[in-house]
Amino acid sequence: MTSTTTLAILGASGDLTARLLLPALGELLTEEKDRRVRLVGAGSSELPDAEWRSRVGAAVRSAAADEVLDRIELGPFLVVDASTAAGVREVVAAAGDGPLVLYFALPPAVTAAACADLSAEDLPAGTMLALEKPFGTDEASARALNATLQRLVPERQIFRVDHFLGRSTVLNVIGSRTANRLFEPIWSHRDIAAIDIRYDESLGLEGRAGYYDGAGAMVDMIQSHLLQVLAIVTMEPPATLDEEDLRDATAAVLRATHLWGDDPVAASRRARYTAGRIGDAQIPSYVDEPGVDASRGTETLAEITCEVRTARWAGVPITLRSGKAIGEPRREIVVRIKPVRHVPTGLTGDAPGGVLRFSLGPDRLEVELNVNGGADPFSLHRAVLEADLGLGAQRAYAEVLAGILDADPALAVRGDAAEQCWRIVAPVLEAWRGGEVPLESYAAGSAGPETWEG
């Protein structure tokens, strides 16, 4: 590396930094032996130098060996009001020379407030801004936030972090669909009947009421992460994986994405978990979790069905679902292939369409096919071909962080894409607020409401 990049984290004493950012930095430095980083922390409460060093060391060691710490130049921890331009300027002044990343590990409203009062002159040339979701609270606020950020730095220096785009399995979708003649010719409505993108987890609220109760499963997962996955699965194959080609392709798909039948009531479902058991743990009802306001009607399980209205995908239902406190979580992308038009007379048994399944953590690729043989060579049965792709989920933040430090925004959400994601879900959120879609219930540890199929 020709220079050391300064990573200045605003909100450095928080959970995000300790749980995700610093371990990701440790993973990255473990693999890239020539990379060096200067680390500056900032927060609203006093953190003595010894405590700051101890926290960084513990978090990095959770994912890396001690030798990695030799390539982290540990700068100061500053006590600043990160919601103000003055606080950000103080952090910038402490960053020193060289490439600078300002990582806002803060609530989005705090980030927006800080940036609103900054000017381009406050930031050194080439400064990169990284911020966590959600990017706005609706399409209009996302557009306003984009205007604020783009007034400070060019779009390609803005990193709207979506760690799902760093998941190796999501990136493997690109290779699987474009680099295999088995799949590339069939990747359209002519051969694909439906696509399901699901991210269900067994975890309950886990003390996140402060954020989650105001967001719910739709905003927390579908509006952000899963629509980005949809874009990767359905985009036109880009000429290259450079940031401009890749993000042009995903943004074009999102512009063409609409709710199925333009009907937010028929195209969406929502539910909330009640008390139940997952493994050895007793899970309280969501409304009894500390910090939850039951009157908000926050959903913990959400589902929408979309259509990408292009020549490639028109007529193919694409269902996105995410839920908490699910007994047997399924985290996967499932591509359902249409059955063949004719099976030779003499072959017995069903011949349903094939299934291509990308499992997310641990990462695995499965192909379900119809084969014959065995005791009755004329009888069809189902076979599954599997490829183990490793524990890619652990690499997600490290991949995203590498892109930020390298000033490569390919795995970051572009401003126009963030706006489109809000546009897509806006009719659903409005219908839900109006009570047009019932808030169903399911016991923690179950697969969801009994009336839901699949």
How is the CATH topology of the largest domain named?
A: Dihydrodipicolinate Reductase, domain 2
CATH architecture grouping of the largest domain: 2-Layer Sandwich
CATH fourth-tier homologous superfamily of the largest domain: Dihydrodipicolinate Reductase, domain 2
Question: Which spans have pLDDT < 50 for at least 5 consecutive residues?
Answer: none
Rg value? 23 Å
Written as H for each helix and E for each strand, in order along the chain, the element string is: EHEHEHEHEHEHEHHEEEEEEEEEEHEHE
Name of the CATH class of the largest domain: Alpha Beta
Whole-number mean pLDDT:
93
**What proportion of the residues form beta strands (DSSP E)?**
25-35%
- Helical content, roughly? 25-40%
Summary keywords:
2 domains, Dihydrodipicolinate Reductase, domain 2, Rossmann fold, 31% helix, seven-stranded mixed β-sheet, 26% strand, globular, 454 residues, alpha/beta
Strand and helix map with partners:
Blueprint: E1 5-10, H1 15-31, E2 37-43, H2 49-61, E3 72-79, H3 85-95, E4 100-104, H4 108-116, E5 128-132, H5 139-152, E6 158-161, H6 168-178, E7 192-200, H7 209-234, H8 243-255, E8 257-259, E9 268-274, E10 276-278, E11 281-283, E12 301-308, E13 318-323, E14 331-337, E15 355-359, E16 363-373, E17 376-390, H9 396-405, E18 412-413, H10 415-433, E19 439-443
Parallel strand pairs: 1-2, 1-4, 2-3, 4-5, 5-6, 7-13, 9-19
Antiparallel strand pairs: 6-18, 7-14, 8-12, 9-12, 10-11, 12-13, 14-15, 15-16, 16-17
Helix pairs in contact: 1-2, 1-9, 3-4, 5-10, 7-8, 7-10, 8-10
